[in-house]
Amino acid sequence: MIDRPKDRQDGNKAVPNYEREAQALREKTERLRALRLARDGAEQPAAPAKASTGGKAKAAKAPARGKPGKSSATLSDWLKSQQDQGRRS
């Protein structure tokens, strides 16, 4: 008679530990996603009414990244400076 692990007796297939862990993670992720969507749906306020100003509204300009007070150069200027310094060939 062949020695079998206890998990495989009576024709039951053993599920590897990593498969059980992966299934538990998928179930946990699904549960947390449902909770988050329910929370976000309940907290989302009604859309505010748009105020008509008669003209086009100006878009808010995003702050420049990088060092403050430094003027932003164009990409072509930066590439030229890199080539002049021997960094690009």
Please sum up the structure shown.
This protein has 89 residues and is mostly helical. 42% of the residues lie in helices and 0% in strands. 0% of the residues are buried.
Structure notes:
The chain has helices at residues 17-43, 75-84. The longest helix is centred in the middle third of the chain and has 27 residues, at 17-43. It has two helices and no strands. The chain is 42% helix and 0% strand. With 89 residues, the protein is an all-alpha fold. The model has no long low-confidence stretch (mean pLDDT 75). The chain is flat.
Question: Topology, pairings included?
Answer:
Blueprint: H1 17-43, H2 75-84
Shape: flat
Briefly note the structural class of the backbone: mainly alpha
Number of strands: 0
**Strand percentage:** under 5%
